[in-house]
Input
Amino acid sequence: MKITPLAADSLGARSMATLVETPDVTVLIDPSVRLGPYRYDLRPHPTEKARQKELWQGIRAAAKDANVLTVSHYHYDHHNPDAPSIFRGKLAFLKDGKFHINRSQRERSGAFVRSLKKYPKEIQVADGNQMDFGGTELLFSPALPHGYNDELGYVVMTRIAHGDEVFVHTADVLGPPLKEHLSFLLDAQPTVLYVDGPMTHMPENYPEEHTKRSLSHLLRILRTTNVRTLIL
Output
């Protein structure tokens, strides 16, 4: 299994776009990248805009080679409503737009699905879904809160297993702070875990108790699963 993070905050722009390749299937998770419109009352710097463009070109190129594209939720750093054509001919797994979703993401979901039109060869609801591709299993979690409550909506995590290798992508659980996040991750038994992590850069919106709980959960995962690589 080959796992390639294509864009991320630490690479210059907001994203968790990831390409996962196995002998059976190539999966592109959350194909989008964005910049925060304001950070510390500042607009994005031209260097940041150039980096976003560069990262997006890499995501577009990866989409051409992927068989499956997935969307964990409808924040713009995880789906790009301006580029539905990257789904052309692909199998699309999308976060359910009707259940376990807040109003803004429900509206975004509806607009996104309408814009996809006939591009994908098939669209399936991701939430709790599972599909085998030869010796590779693709599994999605049920809808889980985007953080320590559901104010920001819900996300689905992604698990890809081939042989003894298991990759899990948490999307935006912001931690993982909740028992339901932890339960899925323990059951998933990842060997490689990509976690978005607690929102320590915004303590006014993410109380310290949730950071401590998230770190405790991560330690438990490291101690009780087969994780050999943690991407945080």
